[in-house]
Amino acid sequence: MAANNQKLCKKTLDNGLQVLLKESHVAPVASFWIYYRVGSRNELPGSTGISHWVEHMLFKGTAKFPSGEFDKAVSRAGGMFNGMTSQDWTTYFETFPSDRIDLALQVESDRMVNAIFDSAETESERTVIISEREGSENSYFWLLNEEVQASAFRLHSYRHPIIGWKSDLLTMTRDQLHNHYRTFYAPNNAVAVAVGDFDTATMLAKIEHYFGDLPAGLPMPQFTLAEAPQQAERRVTLRGSDPTSYFIMAFHAPAALHADFFPLVVMDAVLGGAKGMGLFGGGTNNRSNRLYKALVDTQLCVDIDSEYRPTIDEYLFSFYATLAPSSTHAQVEEAIWAEIRKIQTEGVRADELEKAIKQTKAQFAYSSESVTYQAYWLGVSQVIASTEWLDSWLARLTAVSAEDVQRVAQHYFAPNKQTIGWYLAE
């Protein structure tokens, strides 16, 4: 994370709420986040998309903050706010001038227990979310990615899209949503994070004031899901009216806490360029990575990328390509495999390794510059791994050797372990 002399304060309240506080007096700003340990990972067939829908419903107000009132209050206070759902978590955040951060604590403690879930609002939001999904369905790349993800996982709920399957969105009830809220949106399933211009003892006292008396929820349902090792190559072919051709290749890759996580991060940087890996991190636009030189410079593709990110359970290391008009999917597939095989047989050069690590460090720094981004990283790390994992991030990345990268390339990438998606124009 960005340099900061203040020590991280960690405390768990009596009701189970985990609290992470870090002072940063660089600017008179503070950011407050609430993370709930629930996302599409916690969903079963029949209720896919329920976490994302509940996230929407908590913006519909409480008796204390009716719908729209919080938005106006944030605007008056000169702040910003949002909420997001991922596979592994749901989060809400507010960033304010530091003397107004109490408003964030008031709102988040209130909607943790007092969200209304009005029946009419629930039906209205059903229409909004289905329209959001249908909008995404206009993209054949999005549809292809959904098909590849569902094919790559047979058992694990990572196979489901975060927004949910349309059949579930059409049939879910208000009571299902409210029960999901009552089950997972509770202090004992939440992490409160504050970073910014405040006194730690004072902020802790405020959090205890607003959250300390909230009732702890029931014991959380445990999700110990393990995908069976993939034994056979899987392929999906999607056809449609878009004249542009797309290609996706995915391999199962380990979770954030696995020892091979950091070597695979470096391999990702060598192949597709360094990424910030955070929600706001972005990535480099350099044209010197292996995939760009092999597929874009040769005019096989107009765009090529790789992706690997931290998750609670095993997820995917993926490749995404937009084909040039004269290229075939088979050509692109073979060209990507040629780059993987080079690492498997020849490894990576010392200068290439140094560059990948240095650029990844830079992207990591960029994605944790502001108090908002620092709070994001603290919260997401606590949910998917631990703050100790975050503290060791740079050291463990630096420790990756060329031999480590070659070893993970040999271990995780094989034809029988791949899931391939082709999109072709009809």
Describe the structure.
The protein folds into 2 domains: 9-211, 2-Layer Sandwich (Cytochrome Bc1 Complex, Chain A, domain 1), CATH 3.30.830.10; 234-425, 2-Layer Sandwich (Cytochrome Bc1 Complex, Chain A, domain 1), CATH 3.30.830. Helices cover 42% and strands 18% of the residues. It is built from 16 helices and 11 strands. The protein has helices at residues 50-57, 69-77, 102-114, 119-136, 140-152, 166-171, 174-184, 200-211, 261-272, 290-296, 329-346, 350-366, 371-384, 387-391, 393-398, 402-412, and strands spanning 9-12, 18-23, 29-36, 80-85, 90-97, 190-196, 234-240, 246-253, 301-307, 315-323, 418-425. The strands form 2 sheets. A 6-stranded mixed beta sheet has the order 1-2-6-3-5-4, sandwiched between helices. The chain has a 5-stranded mixed beta sheet with strand order 7-11-8-10-9, with helices on both faces. A hairpin with a 4-residue loop joins strand 4 (80-85) and strand 5 (90-97). Helix 1 packs across helix 7 (174-184), helix 9 crosses helix 12 (350-366) and helix 10 packs antiparallel against helix 11 (329-346). The chain is globular, with a radius of gyration of 22 Å.
Features:
18% strand, alpha+beta, 2 domains, 426 residues, 16 helices, globular, 11 strands, Cytochrome Bc1 Complex, Chain A, domain 1, single chain
